[in-house]
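Notebook, bench 3.
Goal today: get a predicted structure for S8 family serine peptidase from Spirosoma validum so we can plan the truncation constructs. The sequence was checked against the plasmid map this morning, with no discrepancies at the termini. Length recorded as 516 residues. Pasting the sequence as submitted so the record is complete.
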Amino acid sequence: MIRLTAFLCLLAFSIQAQPKYWILLRDKDKNSAPALSSKALSQRQSLNLPVDETDQPVTVAYLSQLQQADVKPICQSRWLNAVSARLTAQQYAQVRTMPFVKDIRAIDPAIVITSIGSPDSAEQPAPHSTNPKLAPVMTQIQANDFAQAGLTGRFVTIGVIDAGFFGADSANALKHVFVRNGVKQVRDYVNEKKTHSELLRTLETTSDLHGTEVLAAIAGNDPTENLQFGLATDATFYLARTDQGNREYRGEEDNWVAAMEWMDSLGVRLINTSLGYAKGMSNPKDNYEPSQMDGHTSLISRAAQIAADKKGILIIVSAGNEGEDRSWRIISTPADAQGVLAIGATNSRLWNRIGYSSIGPENLPYLKPNVSCFSLYGTSLSAPVITGFAACLMQANPKLTNKQIMEVIEKSSHLYPYGNNYVGYGVPQASRALALLKHQELPATARSVKATGKTFTLPIETTEAVVSVFHKKDAIHVMQQEAAKVANGKVTLRRSNDEKQTTVDLKKEVIEVIWE
């Protein structure tokens, strides 16, 4: 009996271990109808976004020919015109010769939930907390300004793509969402046999709490503690579980793309995903390299860019928690895609980068992360805060496009226009965002000064004893961040070798020092 059990386990492992691939197809049946709901079609029309071939389904005849070759497609992507499947070496060789197959790409990088625990020793939370204390970030982003304007994400639909939503319907902070039927549908792309209730009530790993925490950071409000966790307390939600496990798990990019396309077909325009792909674990030859975080190498980033450019979707992604991993340090994909809003994390006192928060690669021609905000629990819980922020803006002006919302969020941030690859443009401010929506002139909170020599004494107006300083090799890329002491209303800056610019962050004002 023991031997039989061992044999069956070995057989199951062997089948599961067959490599998984994207099979990219050459063309589509142009006569097929778009796979979109009437709501999605209406929104496209209102946003002046054309329906094109990326909205048409994968050609049925091609699927039939793959099935005849005993290839069983797992997921289909109309955006990428591809299907995923596990292939033996023989099937791989056979499929590659099919005339309608353009290319075959391995799916092998590991998914990293950007993560529940923070490695920052100065501000370390209890592991796997199911009650994230996010009140400080509500103050940081000026949540009261949205509340006074009556903005709670009402009439806005949000998609959440994550690892699991265990206990979401019974969590105190989320009861108000489920009581009003605010969660419309839940899909499990890991185990499609699970029902709606089973997904919410089955705990396979501790990571199944992750999506619940993310949802709370978007819409949470706990009346028993009189504490608000998220901004979009009145939004409507679609939830998708696309991966299981916490770290070191073989990536399922196709599940993520499938969930994205499902939400798009329903007309969802705002999606939070606190997942990222970085280093793999099975075949080192198939792992991502840091140089590939370029916005177009990974298929998941290509899909994210299609969503931004052609579908009008604002994707808000956690930047990653690899800031202290010397072999990586940078953001993960799809946070590298230009069209997504990548969110880093700050500390609560100085608003500079908290240690674990991933930085933007130097090879990108655009700024990443885009913005940041406070989180003890990893960028997984800073991203949903900004998702709630975006939902309030969408409620205030539903006609705004995804790119306009992204621009408002960036321009409302406290370091704008002096962003950097540590925290982006800094922390979004609700008061500034509301003023931008009303086309009001913002108060002057940014200025530049010129300096020479190795040291420079800068007069500043602040009640803080310590301020944040970013030493930069150019306009964007940080060499070092510093907590600089304020003495007699002045801060003394010491220029490093190769330092070209220095940002002095006073929270209510930002000063850019340009060295000559």
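Residues 1-16, 115-134 have pLDDT under 50 and may be disordered. The CA atoms of residues 299 and 386 lie 25 Å apart.
Flagging this for group meeting.
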